[in-house]
Write a structure and sequence with these properties.
Number of helices: 11
Helix content: 40-55%
Structural class: alpha+beta
Shape: elongated
Radius of gyration: 49 Å
Strand content: 15-25%
Number of strands: 12
Order of helices and strands: HHEEHEEEHHEEHEHEEHHHEEH
């Protein structure tokens, strides 16, 4: 249970004894009042109780005093050691201390501190500690039994808290899904942004909801609910963009008047927007996508109740989900050059970031191959059909006719100086051949 449920003044213990306490317990209007009356009733039933302390767990896991009894002169640090031991051991504890009474009464009374944990579904939600002044033969086990029975009332309170939280989460989920559906019906960015603004304005009871996107570290207004267009140079648009930028710079929601989670936020631009638009309350929540701030939503009411914590939590949930939707629609209408730049940047982030080890190994392997090919030295063969011809062509001419008897070289062979290229047939044989060739026709003609 968060400590915010118990903020404010604790109830007086006047009238908490007797039947009046039970009436207050049954008709308690808040968790704070119920716990205060519960502790008073428990202390009255045990009878010997001189002080009581009820602590509950906060959202961050720490435990703080929720109710002290009696209120007059109560010290939050009183019974702290017993509470810490009870929380540590997660069971009922009894710590005997020395009585502070004087005279004859001191010999008949002892002081004991009793602690009992408050468990809900095996989760430690808090503890109660009582300071008792009782006789030596008093049974502290009966006190622990009384606290066990009484803790069932607080368990019912915790059960109601869980049910309310579940209902709140379901409502946020439903609102988020319906808002996404409204924006996804449109392909263009401006139409989708207007649909989202109209859906949020109707669901959250806002007079105006504005959607802005971060462009070059400056928020630019994209859409206003129930408006097809707006005058960009108007004072109202400038005030809305400044309020969005203020929330974006702080990377957190800004609400005016502030709620519990936004007390320490700077809200100068929101004060200016309230003045310009005559609003009762205004809030800006940041839209994110992949951990980056991509824009903001500004909610305005000119009448009615200020924004509460539940409304801001719902707006933050919706903003965290519709951020990627609007970013995709914004990227879809960019030019090719802008997409290439974004793709290159995303690739470098993936390559140099802490994740994607397989991508880094692949890049190192590629660099190794490229480096080897750039500096390696080796033969490179090219296969092709070719004819080799001499740069100078020369003819070896015989000064007389004859027949070649032997050819020592052929066309295309490599030769050297002094090498025999060919041999001619014997000259005498050649002469007899010629004589027979020419004599036979003559003999025939003469005969």
């Amino acid at each position: 249970m968060r400590i915010k449920d118990f903020e404010g003044d604790m109830l007086d213990d006047v009238g908490y004894r007797g039947d009046g306490a039970w009436s207050l317990f049954v008709n308690a209007g808040s968790a704070n009042e119920l716990c205060a009356v519960w502790l008073a009733v428990v202390c009255a039933r045990i009878g010997t109780t001189t002080a009581g302390n009820l602590v509950f767990r906060q959202g961050d896991g720490t435990f703080v005093p929720a109710v002290l009894w009696p209120k007059a002169g109560a010290d939050p640090k009183y019974l702290a050691s017993t509470v810490e031991r009870t929380l540590k051991e997660r069971r009922g504890v009894v710590v005997q201390t020395q009585a502070t009474t004087s005279g004859e009464e001191s010999s008949l009374a002892v002081r004991a501190q009793v602690g009992f944990p408050l468990l809900h579904r095996d989760d430690l939600e808090g503890a109660v500690a009582l300071d008792l002044l009782q006789s030596p033969e008093a049974d502290t086990a009966a006190v622990l039994q009384e606290l066990l029975w009484a803790s069932a009332w607080l368990e019912g309170l915790l059960r109601d808290r869980d049910e309310n939280a579940n209902r709140s989460r379901l409502a946020r989920a439903q609102a988020t899904l319906e808002t996404i559906a409204a924006g996804s019906e449109h392909r263009k960015l401006n139409a989708a942004a207007i649909a989202i603004a109209n859906e949020l304005a109707a669901r959250l009871g806002c007079d105006r909801v504005s959607v802005g996107l971060n462009r070059n570290d400056r928020v630019r207004l994209v859409a206003i609910s129930h408006s097809a267009w707006f005058q960009r140079n108007s004072r109202l648009v400038s005030a809305i963009e400044n309020a969005m930028q203020e929330a974006l710079d702080q990377h957190a929601s800004v609400v005016l008047p502030p709620v519990a989670s936004t007390h320490r936020r700077v809200a100068a631009a929101h004060v200016d927007l309230v003045t310009v638009a005559s609003d009762v309350t205004v809030a800006s929540v940041v839209m994110t996508s992949r951990g980056r701030r991509i824009g903001a939503l500004t909610l305005e009411r000119s009448k009615g109740e200020p924004f509460g914590q539940e409304t801001i939590e719902l707006s933050e949930t919706v903003a965290s989900v519709i951020g990627p939707v609007l970013e995709m629609k914004s990227d879809a209408r960019r030019w090719l050059a802008g997409r290439i730049v974004d793709g290159t940047i995303d690739g470098l982030k993936a390559l140099l970031g802490p994740r994607r080890p397989s991508l880094k190994l692949a890049a190192l392997a590629a660099l190794a191959v490229i480096g080897f090919l750039a500096i390696a030295d080796g033969p490179y063969r090219v296969s092709a059909k070719a004819v080799i011809e001499g740069e100078e062509q020369r003819a070896a001419v015989v000064p007389f006719d004859g027949f070649i008897a032997e050819a020592g070289a052929r066309a295309g062979d490599t030769v050297s100086g002094g090498q025999v290229l060919a041999r001619l047939a014997n000259a005498a044989a050649m002469s007899s051949v010629f004589r027979r060739h020419w004599r036979t026709p003559t003999s025939n003609s003469m005969g």
